[in-house]
Amino acid sequence: MYIPKYTKPDILEVEMSMNGRDFTNDKVTYGFYDAFVIDVSPRLISKRGGTNMHVKGFGFVDSGAAEIASKFGSKDSGDLVCSAQSPCTNSAKFVDKHTISVVSLPQSVVNYKDGVNIGEDPMTVEVSVYNALYTSNEIEVHYIYDPEYKKLNRDNVPRNMQFPLIVTTDFHWDKNDKELF
């Protein structure tokens, strides 16, 4: 069987013929994959986990919900581990040919292979669209504390009038959980 060159990732139907004229109609598919990650948004994710991230790139195909996954790692240390020394992977969702949706894991379960928690260190986000073959583009994200709501000036705003709305928050950026601003 000859596999033609195909210049873009896709899933195509493959049909067979014994005489070059009469082809099967079995709806068997073959995938051409070459995923590449360009960006992850947002790059700052909640320490509690559950941040919806959009992985941007090309070569993404809808190969089925069971095939699409994400993996978290470290540029310096390779794969990170979560429970029972297993890699930090999570299911992901195909959005379109340039976007895969991923949900972050809680920082408390993300560790280096020696069991030390990732803490404030950056981690990479990679995706797989087929057979656990993950990208290796090393786009980094960082865990942060969620901003803390302090107050809102809504009580001072007259009804049905345009007035600036001021939300006051505290952002905690360093490992000592101190305010920087």
Structure description:
0% of the residues lie in helices and 38% in strands. The chain is mostly beta strands and 181 residues long. It folds into 2 domains: 35-144, Immunoglobulins (Immunoglobulin-like, Sandwich); 145-181, no CATH class. The strands form 3 sheets. Strands 3, 4, 5, 6, 7, 8, 9, 10 and 11 form a 9-stranded mixed sheet that branches. A two-stranded antiparallel sheet has the order 1-2. Strands 12-13 form a two-stranded antiparallel sheet. Strand 6 and strand 7 (78-79) form a beta hairpin. It is flat, with a radius of gyration of 23 Å. The relative contact order is 0.18. Mean pLDDT is 81; it is low at 177-181.
Main attributes of the structure:
2 domains, 0% helix, Immunoglobulin-like, 181 residues, single chain, flat, mainly beta
Task: Classify the beta-strand content into a percent band.
Answer: 35-45%
How many domains? The number is 2
Radius of gyration over all CA atoms, rounded: 23 Å
CATH architecture of the largest domain: Sandwich
Task: Record the SSE blueprint.
Blueprint lengths: L9 E5 L13 E5 L3 E6 L2 E3 L5 E7 L10 E6 L3 E2 L9 E8 L2 E5 L19 E6 L10 E6 L3 E5 L14 E4 L11
Parallel strand pairs: 4-11
Antiparallel strand pairs: 1-2, 3-5, 5-9, 6-7, 6-8, 6-10, 8-9, 10-11, 12-13
